[in-house]
Amino acid sequence: MATTGSDTMDEAIARPEHDPSRVRRVAWASLVGTSLESYDFYVFAYFAAFFVGPLFFEPLGPVGGTVAAFVSIAIAFVIRPVGAIIFGHLGDRLGRRPTLILTITLMGVATGLVGVLPTFDQAGWLGAVLLVVLRLLQGLSLGGEWGGAILLATEGAAERKQPLYAAMPQLGSPIGSILSGSLFLLMVATVSAEDMVAWGWRIPFLTAIPLLLISLWLRWSVQETSVFRTIDAEGLRPRFPLGAVLRAQPWAMVVAVGAALLGIGSYSLMNTYTMNYGATPVSDGGLGFSYMDLLLATTIGGLLQLVTIPLFGWWATRIGSARVVAIGALGTLVIAFPIYLLLTQATFPVLVALMLVGGILPTLSWAALGGLMRDLFDPRYAFTALSFGYAIAATLTAFVPNITQAVGIATGYAWWHPGIVLAVLAVLTLVSAWIAARPGMRRGSAPAGGS
Fold first, then answer.
1. CA-CA distance, 405 to 103, in Å (whole number)?
2. Which helix (H) or strand (E) segment is 425 a member of?
3. Residue 449 CB: number of other CB atoms within 10 A?
4. Distance CA 174, CA 291 (A)
5. Angstrom distance (rounded) from CA 428 to CA 426
6. What is the secondary structure of 427-448 as a DSSP string?
7. Which terminus of the chain, N or C, has fewer Cβ atoms within 10 Å?
8. Cα 262 from Cα 392, distance rounded (Å)
C-alpha cells in the first residue's frame, strides 16, 4: 500500500531522534528563548511605574502619566494576535527554527532599545512615540514565540516524551518572572528613587542584549525539526495556515483558547491584581500587605514552579496532557474562594503558603497546556494554531485585572470578589480540557495545500 503524506508525517512525529543530547539542546534552546521573552516583558511591567509617566508623558501630569504607563503595558497584549498570525505563517511556511530566531531577535533588540530612548526633556514626544513602537514590536514577537517554542521542543522528541518536553518552554514564565522580580528587588534596595528615575530604569532593559546573544547562539546551533522537514519534503505546507486551521478545526481553536485561560489568566490575577489589592490599605478595601512582601511571596512561588512544572510535565506523559490540565482546573475551582478568605487574616508566612498553594494548582494547567494544544492540531499548520490560540487567550486575560476590579467595586470589595474571577477561569478551562481529552479532538486533518 502506498505511503501517504499523513502516514509519513505521523512517523516523523513518533520517531525519536538518534542523539539524545541533540534533543536536550533543542529543549534548552526553547526554554532559554521563552525565558528571555518573559524576562523582557516582565521587566517593562515592573519598572513602568518609575519611568514611563514621569519621563515620557510628563505633560500629561501624574494621573495622565499613570494611565499612559498602563496603556503602554496593554498595547503589547492587544497586538499579540497579529504577531501570532505573522510569525505563525512564517513558522508553517519557512520553518520553526528561522522563525524563532527572528522572534527572539525582535524581542531582544526592542527591549534593549528601550534602555537608550530619549526622554521627553531630551527629545519631546519622539521618545514616547518610539516607546510605543518598541512595545508593539515586543507584543508582535511574543505573539509568535510560544507556539514555535512548543513545537521546537517536541517535534524532534519521541512521542511518549513529548508532553514532558512541551512543559519545558513553560518554565520560561517563572524564570523570567524570578529574574525580573529579583532585579527589581535588588535595584529598589540599592538605588535611590531619584537615581532610579535618572538612570537606573535603563539598566534592566540593557541587560536584554547579552541575554539575546546567548539565546541566539542556542537557537542557531539547533536544526530544523524532523516534522517540518517531512512537511516540506512532501509538499504539505499550507499556503495560508490561518485559513487552513480555521476551516478545518474551528472548534479545536475554541477549545485551545478555553484551555489556556486559567494558566495565563491566573497569573494576571495573582501577580497583577492580587499584588495591587494586597498592597492596598485595609481602610481602602485592600489586604494591607507591603508591596515588597507580596513581591517576595510571588518570587518564592516562581521558584517552586521550577520544580513543579517538569514534574507535572512528566505526569502528563503518564495520564495525558488534557487530563493534567483538567485536574489543575478542578483543584483551582475548589480553592478559589477559601484562599481569598484566608488572605484576609494572613501573616507573612501564611501569605507565602497561600501564594504557593494558589500557584501550584493553576500551574498544573499551565505546565500541560503546550502538550494539550499540540495534540489538538495538525502539524501542517500547528505553528499558527498554537500561536493564535495562545495569543487570543492572552489578550482576553489581559483584562482580568480590570474585570476583577469591576467585580470588586460592584461587591464593595468583599473578600470573595477575586474568587469569582478565578472560579470562572477554572470552569472554562475544565470544560475545555474535558473536550480536548476526547479521542476525536486529537490532531484534525488539514487540506494538503492549505487554504
1. 33
2. helix 417-436
3. 13
4. 19
5. 6
6. HHHHHHHHHHTSGGGSS----T
7. N
8. 13
Domains of the chain in start order, with CATH, are: 1-237 (1.20.1250.20), 239-451 (1.20.1250.20)
DSSP string of 142-175, one letter each residue = HHHHHHHHHHHHHTTS-GGGHHHHHHGGGGHHHH
Residue pair 197/55 in contact by the 8 Å Cβ criterion = yes
> What is the CB-side half-sphere exposure of residue 167 using CA atoms within 13 A?
27
Other CB atoms within a 10 A radius of the CB of residue 45 amount to 18
Place of cell 495525558: 320
61-100 pLDDT tens trace: 877 777 787 788 778 888 999 999 999 999 999 999 999 9
In the block, cell 503602554 appears at 72
Sign of CA dihedral 134, 136, 139, 140: negative
Report the alpha-carbon distance of residue 268 to residue 1 in Å, rounded.
52
| Axis-axis angle for helices 382-397, 80-93 (nearest 10) | 170
**Cell 501630569 sits on residue:** 61
pLDDT per residue as tens digits for the range 184-235:
888 888 888 888 888 888 998 999 899 889 888 888 888 888 899 999 999 9
Distances (CA, A) of 410 to 131, 268, 401: 35, 20, 14
Count other Cβ atoms within 10 Å, centred on residue 128: 23
pLDDT < 70 positions in the chain: 1-20, 49-50, 271-279, 284-286, 442-451
67: left (phi over 0), alpha (psi -120 to 50) or beta: alpha
Tell me the residue type at 267.
Answer: Y
Question: What's the full length of the chain, in residues?
Answer: 451
Residue 186: phi, psi to the nearest 5? -65, -45
